[in-house]
Amino acid sequence: MSKKNQTLGEFIIENQADFAYSSGELSRLINSIRLAAKVVNHEVNKAGLVDIIGAYGETNIQGEDQQKMDVYANETFIKTLTNREIVCGIASEENDDFITIEGHKKDHKNKYVVLMDPLDGSSNIDVNVSVGTIFSIYRRVTPVGTPVTKEDFLQAGNKQVAAGYIIYGTSTMLVYTTGNGVNGFTLNPALGSWYLSHPQMQFPETGTIYSINEGNYIHFPQGVKDYIKYCQQEKPEGPYTSRYIGSMVSDIHRNMIKGGIFIYPKCSQNSSGKLRLLYECNPMAFITEQANGKASDGFERILDIKPTELHQRVPFFCGSTKMVEKAEEFMTAKDR
Ligand code: P6P
């Protein structure tokens, strides 16, 4: 039984048995992520002080300006994961293709692949708004010891063995699941240790917060427009509150604690929505379901979608179960 204020290290050892089929490698993998997160946190927290802010002058595959912190975070996580000889492949929002990690030992047995958005919401860095790292972990499907293939990355979200996020906010938290609930750890930067501050996190079954960029309203499907009108109507539980940070990790983290729904639907500019299935929606959906919430594309369960492309996008409805179900009702009525 997890105890509040337990350190992350103690928690991993105590729950080692939860890492099914793991001979300690998954624990070591989580440990390497927590190390990289501390390094990135240090830089994010001083971003305003050194000349690390501002566009890096290049663009990533998404056609977005790469902030220097994006590049720094990406390199930090890749280096840390590579050095630990646990991972055989990495896919990142910042890299056009996946990266093959050949173990230093010729006959390496590394069996995990990691997919990540190293710094989601990075455009918020310049204005001191919280940002996050999102990661998703799978067991490879091709034979151990052979080079990874795209097949190892294009797995449905229901095959994830672990997923989590780091939120670099008013405090820095690591929130993750290995399929036995969701636990949140807060970093004590003075000691460099993570403490179990939010054991067994759960979405309230319903809530009164809706998170969506209403600036795109005229481009939304009719079902989303109808749902937004529903949110604004008088209801027994009162009209809902609109809260949108523009950093998905922060919006979903708040909604998991307070109750709420986050929606990034398709719209005329983004016919499949903006968010990426593999390293944004799948990990956040795994965490959401493990916290008794719900995550869909407005119709189907996110975790059942069979990916076809590394950077494919999907519409994303995520949060308190009853709120997502109500939004899906409006979508089914008008946009099925
Ligand atoms: P918009 C950040 O760039 C991000 O990927 C998510 O973190 C966030 O929820 C979304 O995009 C914000 O997009 O179009 O509302 O600015």
UniProtKB/TrEMBL annotation:
Domain of life where this protein originates: Bacteria
GO molecular function: fructose 1,6-bisphosphate 1-phosphatase activity; magnesium ion binding
GO annotation terms (biological process): fructose 1,6-bisphosphate metabolic process; fructose 6-phosphate metabolic process; fructose metabolic process; gluconeogenesis; sucrose biosynthetic process
Pathway participation: Carbohydrate biosynthesis; Calvin cycle
Metal-binding keyword on record: yes
InterPro entries, sorted: FBPase_C_dom (IPR044015), FBPase_class-1 (IPR000146), FBPase_N (IPR033391), FBPtase (IPR028343), Fructose_bisphosphatase_AS (IPR020548)
Ranges for domain Fructose-1-6-bisphosphatase class I N-terminal: 7-199
SUPFAM superfamilies: Carbohydrate phosphatase
Positions bound to Mg(2+) 2: D117, D120, E280
Enzyme Commission code: 3.1.3.11
NCBIfam families: PRK09293.1-1 (NF006778), PRK09293.1-3 (NF006779)
Oligomeric form and interacting partners: Homotetramer.
Name the UniProt record assigns to this protein: Fructose-1,6-bisphosphatase class 1
